[in-house]
Amino acid sequence: MPRHIAIIMDGNRRWAQAIGEDPKLGHKMGRDKLEELLEWCLEMDVKYLTVFAFSSENFSRDLEEVHALMELFTKNFHILAKDERVHKNQIRVRVLGNIDMLPQELQDAINLAMDQTKDYSNYQYSIALAYGGRQEIVEAVQNICRDVKEGKIEIEDINEKLVSSYLYTDDIPDPDLIFRTSGEERISNFLLWQSAYSELYFSDVYWPGLKKTDFLKAIYSYQRRKRRWGE
User: Which of the following is catalytic: 12, 22, 32, 58?
Assistant: First the structure.
């Protein structure tokens, strides 16, 4: 089994359009599908799950849609903070991204969920919000330069391990499998540094329509591949 699965949840709006509904319904159904995914990962004992929920570029979308998403995220983090499954299975909740870009109400909900689960270590569930892979690397470089300037580290100390420690995912292992729905075959600025040796799997299914069998196909494909690190 892959230890860490990262998922680009793509296709909410197209799923809704395909059935003649408002994109808001697509996002709501996408949220429900994420609930199912968490159950599947617990069943299969996947220790780390990271999902791409909202990129920093998504702020350019229709304002009404963005506002609806922010409200949905806020509600979901409040639910996560008191979810019995989270506490029973000791799942640590993390958010990856520039949280300062988000509305204060959502920031408060995020901090509540993270604070309620900060001491858990059985599983880790990370949500990428206001996230961009290039920006993550830029911020890491800026912080490294700042620490070199302040004498906290030497230039000779800079290596892959040190750079990784400055990323949002500093204590999370790199993903074994990156899975994207909707038929698009690109990683769209997601975990650029961390995905150097990840296996990639693309599905034609829109995210809200994902079935457990589709998820199992991705894992089966991963298991059939020969993992050769550094190639």
Answer: 58
